[in-house]
Amino acid sequence: MRKLSKYALLGVFFAMTTLAFGQDAEKKKKKSEKEPPHKGSIYLSPVPVIGANPAFGFIYGVGGSASWFMGEPQTTKISNALLGVAFTTKKQTIVTLKSTVYGEDNDFILLGDLRFLNSSQPTWGLGTGPQSAKLASNDFGFDDGTLTGNSEADMMEFTFFRFYETYLKKINDNGVYVGLGLHLDMFRNINDQLLRLDSVPPVITPYYAYNATYGFDQEKSTLMGISLNGVLDTRDNVNNPYVGRYAMASFKINPSFIGSDQTSTQLWLEYRDYFNFTEDHNNILAIWSYANLTVSGNLPYMNLPAIGWDQYSKSGEPYSQGRFRGQNLMFAGVEFRKHLFATKNNPKFFGAIVYANATTASGKDNGINLFEYVEPGYGAGVRININQKARTNVGIDYGWGNYGTSGLFLRLNENF
Q: What range does the record give for the signal peptide (predicted)?
């Protein structure tokens, strides 16, 4: 495993910065609590990061949510940025910065996704269904083969850098936006640990077989693209919506002449909605669905549509990131959110959720089509409101799925 000393120093720097913001926020807390939200209001919520899931093991670090108004709250939605710096018992480093920024009077939206990972993930088979639980085969190809290895092993190490930024301009007062995005994904130093080409018979991983078939490098990949985007956004709050809906269509072009390993195109379709059963927003049914489709060409293996690789990495609970992957993937989830307890100073202090979702992915090389296999997930969690003006919640979820999957997830803000 690579030494993480320099990344640990980076993590300490971010932690100290985040804690400093938190201390400054605490000094101003009493004053800000008495002030109504206004242009320039900032709400900071630093929290420790503690959690566990099959891909990362035990996770520890620091995180923070910053919410602010770039215009008057009567005409401008609250913006939000989430920073996380985490380490894991499987010797991984994870640094993320995710943001949704609304300009004054909601004139524009900026969607940001910045990540650095010194990480590892199992190389699961493509598509959903029983064959996706097989980590390696004794045959070169994409058939079921013979299971080799441990389903909890970290088979593939890598470093990863992502820079996504999308600018959307408002074109009417009904919440419709159009715009462009720039997207860069770089995987480097990929070490496919389960691969054994010199054994008899050789042990072939799905990652190796895919790259050999489609002509990709086994140790690195680059995907760089430009997207054309349309968005409908009528949500009242990005952190914790009570009303409204969100829809997005994004067509991404990844030409080789600007840096992609191979030319390809992708389509992202997404929809979210929120239904209230009471006027006080204490009982909400929320739905979320998206389709991530490969329209033309071939994507690097790690850039194939996969669960948990959305902007905020919140799809697919209880499965670990990348557990289901394929040329095309669709996800749908429903969540019931209920307020339970209030305090004297916070009427939304404590709540709970139950959720269910389903994922399907295709693998054309092993003959798996969309909807041929659907993988369920379900679970429950609690919500603790740590900033009522920003509607910032800390969420703790536990879930179960197929193949003996279960996991604990710690969240800032709602899952969607």
A: 1-22
